[in-house]
Specification:
By secondary structure, this protein is mainly α. The protein is 77% helix and 0% strand. The chain has 5 helices and no strands. The longest helix has 32 residues. It is elongated. The termini are far apart. The relative contact order is 0.15.
């Protein structure tokens, strides 16, 4: 019973998680913002691992309402919201276009791939 009483409560866990995810978001942002505009293959390929790390947070992370609120209302997120949207949006578009072109250029008729 004593061990149970020493467990952190949900709000403590949410604060820790939100900090972790915010740090991941800004690590990706700090790297990707240096590559804008994503105007050549080298930049796009360099962006891929940072996008993957960001995507792991955005697409594969299920957070509770408290953690989500902490992330979205974080002063750093709020102050950079427009830039975050711009950089991440430009990166996503560049990656999708680049890899679609790469795949299309390697496919041959009749392979079905």
């Amino acid at each position: 019973m004593t061990e149970y009483l020493n467990e952190p409560d949900a709000s403590q866990i949410s604060v820790e998680l939100s900090k972790k995810y915010i740090d991941r978001i800004f690590k990706a942002y700090d790297a990707l913002v240096t590559l804008v505009p994503f105007d050549n293959s080298a930049k796009i390929k360099e962006a891929a691992p940072y996008w993957r790390a960001l995507y792991d947070v955005l697409a594969f992370t299920s957070v509770d309402n408290i953690t989500e609120s902490l992330i979205l209302n974080d002063d750093r997120i709020i102050s950079k919201r427009d830039s975050l949207r711009h950089v991440f949006g430009e990166c996503e578009i560049a990656l999708e276009e680049h890899w679609a072109t790469e795949i299309e250029s390697t496919a041959t008729i009749g392979e079905g791939t």
